[in-house]
Amino acid sequence: MTRSAICEAVEALGEVDIAASEINLAKLEGRPKVKRVVDTEKMIWDHDSRLRPRRAKLVPSQDKTAVQKQNGDQSESDKDDIEHDNTALTFPPIPTSTIPATSLLSLGHDPKQEPFIPFQTPSPSILLKEQIPLYLLPRTLYVHDPFCLLHARERRFHDTLWTSRPDIVRTYNLHISESVRSQAEEARRKAEELEEFKARTLILLRYERTKEQIKNHEPIIEVPLPPFSRRMTRLEESYLYLSPAAKVGKGHHSLVYRGEWVLPLDLFTKERTCQFCLKESAKKEIQRLKDTGRWDKMLRAASWGPNGFTGRLPTQVELDAVNDPTNLARDGEDIEREITCIVPSHVAPSEILELLDEVNIWDTLMKNRSVNAMQVQLAGDMLDDAESDVAIMRINPPLSRESQNS
Question: Where is this region: Disordered (predicted)?
Answer without folding.
Answer: 56-93
